[in-house]
Each structure stands twice: as C-alpha cells, then as structure tokens.
Amino acid sequence: MISVRAPATSANLGSGFDVFGVALDRPGDVVRVEKADETTIEVTGMGSEYIPEEPAKNTAGVVANALDAPAHIHIDKGIRPSSGLGSSAASAAGAAVALAELYDRDLSGEDLVRVAAEGEAAVSGEAHADNVAPAILGGFTVVRDDGITQVDASLPLVACLPETVVSTRDARGVVPDSASMDHVVETVGSAATLAVGMERDDPVLVGRGFRESVVTPARAELIDGYAAACEAAEGAGATGVTVSGAGPGVVATCYPGRRRDVASALVDAFEDAGVEARAFCTEVGDGAEFV
Ligand SMILES: Nc1ncnc2c1ncn2[C@@H]1O[C@H](COP(=O)(O)OP(=O)(O)O)[C@@H](O)[C@H]1O
Ligand SMILES: N[C@@H](CCOP(=O)(O)O)C(=O)O
Questions:
Q1: 180 labelled as ligand-binding?
Q2: Cα–Cα 20 to 30 A to 102, which of 120, 163, 166, 281?
Q3: Which atom number of ligand 2 is nearest to the Cα of residue 9?
Q4: Residue 99 sits in a domain of what CATH number?
Q5: Residues paired with 158 in a beta bridge
Q6: Atom of ligand 1 nearest to the CA of 77
Q7: In a domain, 289, yes or no
Q8: What is the CATH number of the domain that holds 237?
Q9: Catalytic pick from 118, 120, 212, 283?
C-alpha cells in the first residue's frame, strides 16, 4: 500500500487568476492506494458526505483512469470540499503521486501536474492546474502553457473558511469575459510585485500583489461578509487579504507574529455578518509527500 499526504492550496492570490498558487502547510488530504482489478473509492473525513465515491466523478478516480492504474483508493479528507482551498485538487494530486509510485511510472513533476489537472477538469469544468501544481511541487507556483515555475517561499498565511458553499464551477461562471486596459495594467503590476515578494519572503510585497479588480470583486459578491472581513483583517495587521481560489475561503498574509490576531479578526467579522467561520494559521508549505 502507498500512502501520500497532499496539501491544501490557495490559487489565484488575487492577481494570478488561473496562474498563481501556493501550497499550505495545513490542512491536507491523505490518499492511500492498493492495486486492484478495477478502481473503487472510499472517502472519509471532512465533508466526505458531499464527495462522490463513483470513480468517474471523484478527482482521484479520474486520475486513476488517466494513468490506467486501477486501485482501491481511500481518501481521508482534511480539506472541506467547495472551500476555495483546493480540496478536489489535493485528492487529485495525492492520487497522481501515489498511483505513479504504485505502478512504477517514471513521470516528472510536471507530468504528474498534467495528470492531476485532468481530475480537476472533471469537477470544475475546465483543466486549471493552479491548485494541483503547488499541491504536487510545493511552495509558490506559476502555471503557464509553456511550463511551470516553482519557488520555495517562506511566508505566513491565514486561511479562513466561512460556512458558505461556493462551487468552483459556479464561481467560474461569474468571471467577466473581458477587462479594460487600466485593469490589465493594474493586474500586471500586482502580479509582478507578488512574484518578487515570494522570492524575497516579503509579506508586504505579497499582500500588495493580491490587489486585482476584475475577478476578485465578482467572486466577492458570492461571499457574505467578505468586505467587512477584509477590513477587519487589515486592521489586525494583515498586509493583504483576498479570495482564496474560487472562494468562499479567504486568504491573508501578514508578519509571523500577527497570524492569530488576523485569524480572530476574520472569524469575528464573518460571525458579525451572520456567517459561521473558522480560520487556520498556516504558512507556505511542501507539496505531496509519502507518509
Ligand atoms: N476527491 C474529492 N475531494 C473533494 N471534492 C471532490 C472530490 N472528488 C470530486 N469532488 C467534488 O468536487 C467539488 C469540489 O471541488 P471545487 O468546487 O473545485 O472546490 P474546492 O475548492 O474544494 O476544490 C464538489 O462538488 C465535490 O463533490
Ligand atoms: N483558478 C481557479 C482556482 C479554483 O480554486 P478552488 O480551490 O476554489 O478549487 C478559479 O479561480 O476558478
């Protein structure tokens, strides 16, 4: 039996829609695989009641099919589905790494990302690899058609999960079809600032680089209490706050000593808006690993 822990991830980071992603040190999914004549899936843990066990509908099952690697797959979910923290991607990434090892397939990190992205496409409608890339490679990743760039950043993060469900498929439906030149200029400036901030492990530059005015405001409309939560987090020391992935999760960065204050501010602000929420103090972490 092969067992792999794959981390939660936060995609987009404001200015990098479908391009940027980071691995979070916690939480994560654990995927265990054993060879079998045909693929079967069992899911336990956080939100497992909402996750299909039919292989064609589960991201891990789609990966097993893509790799022609039938297995009994057990997924212990540490990441709530439809959270904006790459829950479906973690299972896809964990399955890709575990099944490649089980069947002795000689695949590069980028090959594994491509296979795991097929699992993501099955649930979100499009093959975006900005969650599976950091879930496999770790750190901060930049995904483009011509390759993936990875940086081992060290950065404090707070992830907050309001008890609202937003599916990635639905949240992709509200993304505007076009952007003005002013917005393009702003996004390029933010994305460049964020990438330099990741290289320098600088929470001020990274937080400034979250700023984006096309996709983020459209998604924020789906998250009750979002504006108040951002304001409260910034008041508590966050150097930047944005929607995590497609939402409803929110991600903030700050100096290391401010994480607890930022986490409490986010939770309290959502609760004041009538939305239950929980927050994790975390940091940029490693990719999928054997356990
Ligand atoms: N192994 C899996 N883990 C989590 N969600 C899965 C899995 N397989 C299929 N899904 C489905 O994917 C959807 C959640 O994915 P998505 O909307 O992209 O949110 P998230 O941000 O949590 O990845 C849910 O409909 C869920 O049932
Ligand atoms: N780039 C994607 C990222 C979705 O992330 P998830 O964690 O919400 O699945 C998007 O913004 O649609």
A1: no
A2: 120
A3: 7
A4: 3.30.230.10
A5: 252, 281
A6: 3
A7: no
A8: 3.30.70.890
A9: 120
Q: How would you classify residue 102: left for phi > 0, otherwise alpha for psi between -120 and 50, otherwise beta?
A: alpha
Residue nearest to atom 11 of ligand 2 (CA): 246
pLDDT tens-place values along the chain, 291 residues long: 999 999 999 999 999 999 999 999 999 999 999 999 999 999 999 999 999 999 999 999 999 999 999 999 999 999 999 899 999 999 999 999 999 999 999 999 999 999 999 998 888 777 789 999 999 999 999 999 999 999 999 999 999 999 988 888 889 999 999 999 999 999 999 999 999 999 999 999 999 999 999 999 999 999 999 999 999 999 999 999 999 999 999 999 999 999 999 999 999 999 999 999 999 999 999 999 999
Q: Is 187 a catalytic residue?
A: no
168 is catalytic: yes
Buried b / exposed e over 98-115, threshold 16 CB at 10 Å, is bbbbbbeeebeeeebbbb
Residue 108 is assigned to a structural domain of this protein: yes
**Burial degree of 277 (CB within 10 A; 0-12, 13-18, 19+):** buried
pTM of the model: 0.96
Q: What angle do CA 211, 214, 217 make, to 5 degrees?
A: 75
Q: Which domain holds residue 41?
A: 2-151
